[in-house]
């Protein structure tokens, strides 16, 4: 028996893990992995020498990896010259398929393969689809990837090159999700949603452990993350909480959430504003263009617990940083990542992040996977 159960993120209902269960049977909220008391971590990421990380993988042989993780942190000195803060970037675009999604996908596909899954369905605006396609190829699993026709061409090409069956959907990101769920149900296939799978966040939480090691335990005061569905945001928080429970860190960083003004369900909920899918507008930051994030309530809880702030940025602000970063710091980030820098600028200018702070921003995806700013 595995040393963990699925636990409801709202009502606390618990059950044994199965590959196709993605929501609570009592209240329909998303599920999380909860480790049993006394279960000692054994399987670890390849080459990891930091604190033991609880993971839902039974044996090292089941751990599928393409070398994800251990991404570098760089000090953005030129930006620091005209601000009163220290600013660091963690280069998540150096993961195998060019985005942070490889962290969650590695764990999710490892567990699903060990549970006997041979074919799956996923929906994505691009990065997660490419990641699931790559790791499914590694695992020998047939992948059906649903993506909106508006997704950037390079991302669609990347999905296809790994051999996935690619289903392009006319419509919004949310309509793409609906099509994927329908296809999975009609064909009795596993819906391996990176938005809902309890296993995905178990991979993204490793980000927090790496930050702990890279900052020698002296954590940044603030972490600014672009949020669509919130898998990196929630993973970062889970990792931080585990480190604190082990007595390895004291004060936790504030986790700030950045969204595009065009698609802002989290920011609106945080501020008590009315916002629904009818307010949806196009944005160049496709990675965070999620109108109905299923883990919205969890993101709001983390904002409150960490003392973070949810902020929105305009298309113009995103575009400015999309151009500035490569020309001045040598970082070619996708627009979704640029949104985080635009948000950090506003947080500093408003005094929400005070002078003297140490800020970390994950550069979540590579610029070559999206449209060019020039």
UniProtKB/TrEMBL annotation:
Matching Gene3D superfamilies: 3.40.50.1100
Name this polypeptide is given: Tryptophan synthase beta chain-like PALP domain-containing protein
Keyword Lyase: yes
Keyword field: Lyase, Pyridoxal phosphate
Organism classification: unclassified sequences, metagenomes, ecological metagenomes
Cofactor or coenzyme needed: pyridoxal 5'-phosphate
Every Tryptophan synthase beta chain-like PALP domain range: 65-365
Record keyword Cell cycle present: no
GO biological process assignments: isoleucine biosynthetic process; L-serine catabolic process; L-threonine catabolic process
Molecular functions (GO terms): L-serine ammonia-lyase activity; threonine deaminase activity
InterPro entries the UniProt entry points to: Ser/Thr_Dehydratase, TrpB-like_PALP, TrpB-like_PALP_sf
């Amino acid at each position: 028996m595995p040393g963990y159960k699925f636990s409801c993120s709202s009502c606390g209902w618990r059950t044994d893990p199965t590959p196709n269960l993605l929501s609570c049977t009592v209240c329909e909220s998303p599920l999380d992995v909860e480790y049993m008391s006394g279960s000692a971590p054994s399987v670890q990421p390849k080459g990891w020498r930091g604190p033991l990380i609880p993971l839902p993988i039974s044996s090292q042989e089941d751990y599928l990896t393409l070398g994800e993780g251990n991404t570098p942190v760089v000090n953005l000195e030129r930006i620091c010259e005209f601000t009163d803060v220290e600013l660091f970037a963690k280069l998540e675009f150096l993961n195998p398929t060019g985005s942070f999604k490889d962290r969650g996908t590695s764990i999710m596909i490892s567990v699903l393969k060990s549970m006997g899954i041979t074919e799956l369905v996923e929906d994505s605006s691009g990065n997660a689809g490419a990641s699931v396609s790559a790791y499914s190829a590694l695992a020998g699993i047939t992948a059906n990837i649903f993506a909106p026709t508006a997704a950037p061409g390079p991302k669609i090409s990347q999905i296809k090159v790994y051999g996935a069956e690619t289903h392009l959907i006319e419509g919004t990101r949310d309509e793409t999700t609906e099509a994927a769920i329908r296809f999975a149900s009609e064909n009795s296939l596993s819906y391996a949603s990176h938005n809902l799978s309890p296993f995905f966040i178990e991979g993204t939480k490793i980000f927090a452990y790496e930050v702990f090691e890279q900052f020698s335990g002296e954590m940044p005061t603030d972490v600014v993350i672009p949020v669509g569905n919130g898998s990196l945001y929630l993973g970062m928080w889970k990792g931080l909480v585990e480190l604190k429970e082990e007595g390895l860190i004291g004060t936790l960083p504030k986790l700030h959430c950045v969204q595009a003004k065009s698609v802002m369900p989290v920011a609106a909920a945080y501020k008590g504003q009315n916002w629904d899918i009818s307010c949806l507008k196009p944005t160049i930051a496709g990675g965070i263009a999620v109108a109905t994030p299923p883990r919205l309530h969890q993101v709001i809880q983390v904002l409150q617990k960490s003392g973070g702030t949810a902020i929105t940025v305009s298309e113009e602000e995103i575009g400015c940083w999309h151009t500035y970063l490569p020309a001045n710091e040598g970082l070619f980030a996708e627009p979704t990542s640029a949104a985080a820098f635009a948000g950090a600028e506003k947080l500093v200018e408003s005094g929400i992040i005070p002078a003297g702070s140490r800020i970390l921003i994950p550069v979540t995806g590579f610029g070559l996977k999206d449209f060019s700013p020039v």
